[in-house]
């Protein structure tokens, strides 16, 4: 056991005691959180891990790239060399469960195709690791429940890979919504889409691997930004599907529009597409508006208000901030800004959207309460 | 007959001959069009006539405020004095038909509540006057047909009060759509709404006078901008209604969302409301986007593109440009940028929206062909 591993175990022990005794974690730990970085293992080394997560982890303050899990042996050596990952922290999909015995891995980040999220998140939880499950959380609500249950049973933390929840632009929207400098929200409109022209065999276009098309991929961003753009969960939703390139989008949705009704009367519109570029959030208040465009991309995000003010923050890796937020949640007891219940809520909405489409655009009631709403952010 | 009246008759005579003989009107008339202004009579002296049309006419180049038609006797003197209108050009709703004998009135602009559009437009046509009918054109498609027929029978020109059709920002959108510097349009999104908090007894909130709420008032702008944002008519539409203040919006729609399907695969979203402020047009192309915000207000309009360019034109009265465009159409044979068929088309769409709402959001097919599309603008 090296010094870092020792510190990890130590701080986890303190954290556990603090939580049980009701003492605020940050107090119980004193300055300990500054000395500890949690080890993350990335499961699935596709482009998101390669170009976003691994680089983001290089700058992270509270976590680091400790291990990898890959089904492609030739990637092992490349990643080990590039990121100084020791051989004992490298796993494949078969021996993955033995990660339970590896104390240098604190968090498992599942970055696999959607159909594999539940399996690997549950196995990670059973291995005693905290879990980040990439969005969309799973193929359906049932799988979300299974992931949440597994994490609860194992006493590990669970987060969904909603990088936007940690983004300062998102949090400025939340602040405007909750502090009401422009009054109450009356209308929210959110678009998330891009034109897919790549390999038609990619897993995102294969329903058995993705669970759905634009809605599962980009649509959850629109669902999310509509919700934090109002600060409430919707009470009903209706939706429509549009298809113009069926030869390319063989069995996944190409474009979807949906309309949300919120309990305070706010009307929500969302659009998601694999056949049109759109990347916006517009929130109309009683006395003004705020717009982000781009809104859901890796940044830099750009925002403005009806008063002519620019919303601008220094650009940093959203993934770095997201993973640091989760590490801080584990280490210091700060809020989990993207808990499993949020991912499950969004999957309930996704299922309602597909059901509405199947029923010719019928308005589907939603009974979500406060599910997935995180009141106080970091 | 004074000199101006004589010139009017002369130019109308030449115009008639030119049209019959197929000679381009502007050639046949030589420089005559520069010397002639058409006389407009405003029917209904509410706020739109008072604060938009009459001031706009002061700067118009091809028409002028020649007469008024009002049901409020005390307004007669005020307007006569303010705008130098002779007594013989002042009418009330009862003696309005005698305007047929008044050679100084060339155009009648009907600015009455929607329920009176058809009646006065038809009476104006029968009186031999060219007609501008304020938007929405009428209460329903049947009335639109009656207006169009009456104008055809009387051989007079007909235009709908679509000020945006003459606006340079609209025409820049049309240029980007047709010249395709950003490629083909893939998605269009248009919002038009404001928060109504005024007198609940106003005619706009009385279905018997307005024919409908937000959709009839602001919604036609969204319909229009979705269409010129694509350059085609939609082939289907679905719609949803949202109601949160039924005590105020007793029998008119408060907020409506609608989704349009275009023959080239473009997806259209529109939102209109009397309970939320939104005033935008977003057009997403293959290789970029353009946005107007504000888009549908009296100006100044403001636009920008994905390349960071501002779209900016010197502000001028939209109503002045609109009425000048119609006068030029009459005088010089330039295109009628907002013909009656455009107003009828939009009313077909409005009726389909209400029908979709009544049928729970069902997608309604539309068979519009090129109806109302003006290919070449001034």
Automatic annotation (TrEMBL), chains A, B:
Alphabetically ordered keywords of this record: Signal
Location of the Gfo/Idh/MocA-like oxidoreductase N-terminal domain: 39-162
GO molecular function: nucleotide binding
Annotated TM spans: none
The keyword Signal appears for this protein: yes
Listed InterPro entries: Gfo/Idh/MocA-like_OxRdtase_N, Gfo/Idh/MocA_Oxidoreductase, GFO_IDH_MocA-like_dom, Glc-Fru_OxRdtase_bac, NAD(P)-bd_dom_sf
Record keyword Manganese present: no
Residue ranges occupied by any GFO/IDH/MocA-like oxidoreductase domain in the UniProt entry: 172-290
Annotated signal sequence range: 1-28
Protein name: Gfo/Idh/MocA family oxidoreductase
Record organism: Ulvibacterium marinum
């Amino acid at each position: 056991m090296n010094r870092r591993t020792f510190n990890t175990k130590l701080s986890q022990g303190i954290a556990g005691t603090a939580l049980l005794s009701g003492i605020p974690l940050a107090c119980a730990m004193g300055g300990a959180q500054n000395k500890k970085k949690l080890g993350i293992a990335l499961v699935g080394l596709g482009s998101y891990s390669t170009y976003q997560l691994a680089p983001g982890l290089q700058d992270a303050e509270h976590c680091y790239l400790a291990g990898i899990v890959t089904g492609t042996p030739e990637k092992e050596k490349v990643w080990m060399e590039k990121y100084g990952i020791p051989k004992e922290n490298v796993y494949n999909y078969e021996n993955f469960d033995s990660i339970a015995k590896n104390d240098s891995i604190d968090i498992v980040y599942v970055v696999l195709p959607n159909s594999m999220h539940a399996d690997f998140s549950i196995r990670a939880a059973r291995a005693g690791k905290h879990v980040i499950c990439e969005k969309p959380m799973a193929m359906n609500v049932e799988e979300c429940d299974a992931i949440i249950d597994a994490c609860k049973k194992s006493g590990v933390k669970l987060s969904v890979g909603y990088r936007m929840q940690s983004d300062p632009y998102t949090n400025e929207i939340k602040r405007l919504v909750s502090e009401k400098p422009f009054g109450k929200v009356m209308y929210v409109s959110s678009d998330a889409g891009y034109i897919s022209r790549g390999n038609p065999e990619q897993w995102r276009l294969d329903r058995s691997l993705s669970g759905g098309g634009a809605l599962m991929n980009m649509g959850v961003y629109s669902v999310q930004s509509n919700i934090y753009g109002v600060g409430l969960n919707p009470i009903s939703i209706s939706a429509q599907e549009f298809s113009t390139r069926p030869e390319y989008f063989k069995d996944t949705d190409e474009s979807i529009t949906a309309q949300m009704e919120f309990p305070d009367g706010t009307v929500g519109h969302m659009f998601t597409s694999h056949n049109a570029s759109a990347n916006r959030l517009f929130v109309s208040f009683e006395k003004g508006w705020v717009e982000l465009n781009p809104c859901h991309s890796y940044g830099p995000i750009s925002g403005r208000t009806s008063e002519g003010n620019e919303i601008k923050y220094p650009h940093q890796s959203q993934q770095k901030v997201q993973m640091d937020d989760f590490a801080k949640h584990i280490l210091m007891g700060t809020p989990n800004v993207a808990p499993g219940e949020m991912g499950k809520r969004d999957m309930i909405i996704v299922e309602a959207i597909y059901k509405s489409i199947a029923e010719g655009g019928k308005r589907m009631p939603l009974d979500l309460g406060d599910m997935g709403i995180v009141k106080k952010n970091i």
